[in-house]
Specification:
Elements lengths: L1 E9 L8 E8 L2 E8 L7 H18 L7 H23 L7 E6 L3 E7 L3 E6 L2 E5 L5 H7 L30 E6 L4 E6 L1 H4 L4 H8 L4 H16 L6 E9 L12 H13 L42 E3 L6 E3 L1
Helix pairs in contact: 1-2, 5-6
């Protein structure tokens, strides 16, 4: 299996970007990280930046694939937690951040999360699962007091039960899955999942232009959030059977020969206009209902072949 990745960020309607993204790749191994600095605490940008930098450092020091992905991911989180608290003490602030991280190999994906930054897992016919938030509204949902669609606009939406930074060590949630070539993952902050439906996420994962689709969705999230909208960050990964293409990527000669033979045998057929779908996603459950105005985008590139990329922390998008 090989991975395609992309990411995007947008400042939304806020004065400061407190969301961060880190994407690292080496061969068939990837690390995706999304952090959302908690706006209710001074220093949210400090906390999320520390997590992104910590993830990059741990990635650079490790030999991939790592022997124990869970320990690797939890090590990033706990190291960041300690560094965030140290920064808070030095600067006289109380920085906090959520996090969601995924480590992917040729055969499996592993992820952890703290707070309400989410991972959505898609396969074949649509959404298979999402992570459960460490929040008051998640508890209300599980008690049957509210619906999934009401979570984004509930008055207690920002009340979290876990975070990086703070007196108590966070309770880190963990999950994993064996991969097939039709798996896709979306990691995002609440500024993204509040306004982007799971149908839209699933459609983006089928696009031949993954980076462009994620940039577009993040821009839509900013537009829907309007002048008071939250920061937005998303990182996505999908797996496929072929080797990778482009910078630092390869494609097998056998696949090229098959494509050439198919083109010759079926020259009389033409594709209809529009994007070719890499794998089907049908029947994905819808997320929060969108509302509306203005996007802001810029650019950056995700790392390849052993390198990584940190989100800039300003309004912008990037990926591959």
């Amino acid at each position: 299996m090989a991975w395609d990745t992309a990411f995007a960020e947008n400042i939304g309607g806020r004065d400061e970007q407190q969301d961060r993204v880190c994407v690292c790749e080496s061969g068939a191994n990837v690390l995706l990280c999304v952090a959302d600095g908690m706006g209710g605490h001074k220093g949210g940008a400090v906390a999320s930046q520390i997590l992104a930098e910590t993830a990059q450092e741990h990635w650079d020091k490790a030999k991939h694939p790592v022997k124990d992905p869970r320990a690797f991911l939890e090590g990033i989180a706990m190291d960041a937690h300690s560094r965030i608290n140290t920064a808070g003490e030095e600067q006289g602030i109380e920085p906090r951040s959520t996090c969601v991280l995924l480590y992917g190999t040729e055969s499996s994906a592993y992820w952890i999360w703290i707070g309400d930054s989410r991972l959505y897992r898609f396969r074949d016919d649509g959404l298979r699962e999402r992570t459960k938030d460490h929040s008051v509204i998640q508890m209300l949902l599980e008690m049957g007091k509210i619906t999934e669609d009401e979570m984004a606009t509930h008055p207690d939406q920002n009340r979290l039960l876990q975070s990086l930074g703070g007196d108590k060590d966070p309770e880190i949630a963990y999950d994993s899955v064996s991969l097939s070539e039709n798996h896709g993952f979306v990691l995002c902050s609440d500024g993204f999942w509040e306004t982007v439906t799971t149908d839209e996420m699933g459609e983006a994962l089928t696009s031949t232009n993954l980076s462009g689709e994620i940039k577009s969705l993040v821009a839509k999230a900013a537009e829907r959030g309007g002048s008071t909208g939250d920061n937005i960050a998303a990182a996505v990964g999908r797996v496929k059977a072929s080797g990778r293409t482009g910078a630092g990527r390869t494609i097998t000669v056998g696949i090229l020969l098959i494509i050439a033979a198919a083109a010759a045998a079926f020259a009389s057929f033409a594709l209809l206009p529009g994007e070719e779908k890499l794998w089907p996603i049908d029947g994905a459950k819808s997320g929060a209902s969108p509302t509306a105005p203005p996007p802001s985008t810029g650019g950056a590139s995700a790392g390849t072949s052993g390198s990584g990329a940190l989100g800039s922390g300003s309004s912008g998008t990037g990926g591959q």
